[in-house]
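A protein record pairs a chain with a discrete description of its three-dimensional fold. The following entry can be read in just this way.
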Amino acid sequence: MGISVLVANEYPVVRSGLRTLVAATEDLAVGGESADGHATLDMVRQRDWGLLMLDLCMRGRSGLELLKLIRAERPRLPILVFSAQREELYALRAIRAGAMGYLSLRSDGETMLVAMRRVAGGRMFLSPEVTELLASHPVESGGVLPHDRLTDREYGIFSRIVSGATLTDIADELSLSIKTVSTHKSHILDKMTLAGQVEMVRYAIEHRLLETVSE
């Protein structure tokens, strides 16, 4: 049997696509699937996996907090983030949180297999875009941009707000109360010294942090 892969993604079509891709190989095998953060954590605890393909945007416990929790409980588990989120949004934080690679859903099948094998083998996989981000990110050169001051939870809420999600949507997705999300929003505005949501969106556009910004 090949390397046992746990695929954590809420979309059936993505999980099915990965199953089909891996089925054509001799060294990789999808051994389990999960559609939300809670199920992913439960499955990670149940057995030793050869590789975790992790999406950062799932219902329930998700995102960078889930990544950090898994890394704390299973420090040797190879984790490859496989997400629709643009590299500018989450790649740096994901790698700093313990991921060994970051792969976009836009990647072709050959690149996916290379990334999976590389990470499962204990090596990092970085696309040219992520490598450039790591080399040029302001934090590395001593500067800190306003959005770098946010905690991982705040950054997740910030990215959802500027992408058009309502506070109710965010509360439902992250299993939080609307009051808690509203409090986080206030802290985000304070830390980034912004006056309101319009300025948040303008900031995201200027710094290319929006999913809808064209390449």
Q: What stands out?
A: The beta strands are 3-8, 28-34, 51-54, 79-83, 101-104.
